[in-house]
Specification:
This protein has helices at residues 20-30, 49-57, 68-71, 85-95, 115-121, 125-136; strands spanning 14-15, 34-39, 42-48, 73-74, 79-80, 99-103, 109-114. The chain is of the alpha/beta class. The chain has a single domain, classed as CBS-domain (Roll). The two termini are 26 Å apart.
Amino acid sequence: MLVKEVMSKEVDYISFNKSVQEAAIRMANGNYGVLPIEKNDKMIGMITDRDIALRVVALKKDPEKTTVEECMSTGVNYCLEDEDVMSLAQKMENTRHRRIPVINKEKRLVGIVSLGDLATKGKNKDLTQSVLEHIYG
């Protein structure tokens, strides 16, 4: 089974210079826990609901003035849409990431795959359990 068969195809992203408030609004409206961040047409990081809570709210920064680049998680762990799900699962286990952006051969963002996608569409309970144990264990 390939990543493109289990990924969510509707994916949003945000520009590096946008406010954390805008990111939070997009995340709330789309029911996302993460947004990829782009700069000069490249993915440079991710912002998660946890990043916002710990790096903005907890530090009492102004979400209207703080940019997503200031509080993002750097270094993007991604996978290819034609990659095997077993390879994806190994990446998730090794990095302990619950969500991974998916790119195509042209290096364009085409989706995002979550642990939930793997569990509901992956059709491999043992694989899902293994990933869960490595992420949360």
